[in-house]
Amino acid sequence: MQKMQGISSKNKWPYLFIAPYFLSYAVLSLFPILFTLYISLTDWDLYGNRNFIGLGNYTQLFLHDSFFWRSLLNVLIFMAVYLPALVLIGMLVASLIESKLIRHKTFFRLSVFSAYMTTPVAVGIIFSLLFDWQGGFLNNMLMELGIIQEKINWLGSVSTSRWVVILMVFWKNLGYFVMFYTAGMASIDTSVYEAAMIDGASSKDVFTRITIPLLKPINLFLVITSIISGLQLVEEPMLLFSGWSSGSSMVGGPDGSTFTPIWYMFDASFNGSAFKYGKGAAIAYGTFLFIALFSVVGMKWISRGGDES
Amino acid sequence: MRVRRFFTLVLLCAVAAAFLFPFYMMIVMGTYYSEDLFKQLPILPSNYLLENLKTIISADFLWNYWNSLYVAVLFTLVTVSVASITGFAFAKYEFKGKNALYSFILLTMMIPGHLGLIAYVMEMKWFHLNNTHAPLILAGLNNAFGVFFMTQFIRSSVPTEVIESARIDGCSEPAILVRIVIPFLMPAISTLGLISFLGSWNGYLLPLVTINKPQLYTLPLGIANLSTVFRTDYSASILGLTLGTLPLIILFLFGSKTLVRGLTGGAVKG
Fold it and tell me: Which ranges carry the ABC transmembrane type-1 domain (chain A) (predicted)?
């Protein structure tokens, strides 16, 4: 079949067709990726230093830099909370939407998904206004209802500002998860359910024994892509502390509690007076190392979880 | 059954409300006089919309809007055309090294986008392209996901017989692509186009590190900086936010089905 589709391998056209992609990939992606690796082995900065220092940046980063470990720990803490929540609540909401009892499925699907479409900038700013200390909607409402006596500085303390970031990422991504789950549930053959019902399975059994195992490939995809993008989290927390709400203009949030590795990379190489490209490049590759590591762990974890059931 | 249905509905409505509420807040807050914003709970719209509109128009806001629009359109065109041409070659030709090259593309989809950022910014400076929109548009040239998506689509929905018969009739290979294949690709083009437009329109970090002239800012940069332009005028800035989200909402209302199919298609089938 495949052979019949093709034409003579001597033809020049396929090579001409793929040339723009691969040429631009070489110049605009591959070269920057490799050159960043080289930069990470130097003390390159804006002021003319270009000395090769071997693994100096990496030993500094891994052995002496508490900011790097803290930023990495932050994104891992965030993920440890919102990823299980996204998977569980995502499946739950999706199964509610897909249940036979509900009409207007599109409306519910789209309203949950709308957050995912929104610019990270808008998400960050909306949340910084909702959770603002003095004039924020949440504090004003809680005061009005008499639930709290004194306004809470949500974005001013370590634990509450972490919760705000977790809530923000959860809010933004739940629609994405729900979309995948509803698409996956819709593609499950209904006769499987009918057969289970005839055999007397309860709807809880159907959900845990049929729906969840059949969604395994989707879960694998969602968890792996979430790990890759979750470790690169940067724009939302950055905009949350961009100075829109009272007294929240600080790098990394209170005590660096919402600092992230890519934010650190940006801060080291493009912000303020540092412009330490070598350090920034080492942060990029250090983060990449952990992304690869956690992706493999995630894949193992999900594949094993499937075998037990 | 009826009770369960009622509870399901209530639960779903609560979820929908929790998701739509921040948008509602954003729209309403843009209609207030800034000082009134923090005096009461801004739940119903106020009457200061036009004044706020005047305030943001007097800033560089319209320029930001235009910049974002044309960058997103060009980015989308570049992404879709390169992905279609490359996908066509991978789907309908046999050539040496094809499988290796295709696996390479799939592999690069796993590499985080920020890995080469520092050197990319430097490279753009060497080409004297910093403080232009070129770095934002050029980034669309090698979209690995786009190629993957187009290859899959062309493989499954463009019949090889049609291509063969056009070839027998003496049609040249580029003409086959333009006249025969492209018309089949419209659903895939609109899906990939929508995803690309969304990505470009929402992008923040890349313009932040390549552009530092306010007239050249794209919308997300412009909005983020509205707060420094008018420190005190929150409602004007929030109105800017609303206007920046508006095109996406419109695009989404018309294209949600295509978009969702595109986002979920690959993973659900696989």
Answer: 72-298
Q: What is the pLDDT of residues A82-127, one digit of tens each?
A: 999 999 999 999 988 887 777 787 788 888 888 888 888 888 888 8
Q: Which of residues 123-182 of B touch A (CB under 8 A)?
A: 123, 138-139, 141-142, 147, 160, 167, 173-174, 177
Taking the Cβ of residue B19 and every Cβ of chain A, the question of whether any pair is shorter than 8 Å is answered with: yes
**Mean of the pLDDT values across residues A66-94?**
94
| Residues of chain A contacting B89 with CB distance shorter than 8 Å | 13-15, 17-18
Does the pLDDT at position A6 exceed 70?
Answer: no
Residues 6+ away with beta carbon under 8 Å from A16: none
Topology of domain A37-305 in CATH is MetI-like fold (1.10.3720)
Retrieve residue A153's tokens.
Answer: 């500085």
Predicted TM-score of the model (pTM): 0.87
Among the partner-chain residues A6, A22, A24, the one whose CB lies closest to the CB of B93 is A6
State residue A249's pLDDT score. 59
Residue count (chain A): 309
Is A138 in a helix, a strand, or coil? helix
Summarize the confidence of residues A149-169 as an average pLDDT: 88
Classified by CATH at the fold level, domain B69-234+243-266 comes out as MetI-like fold (1.10.3720)
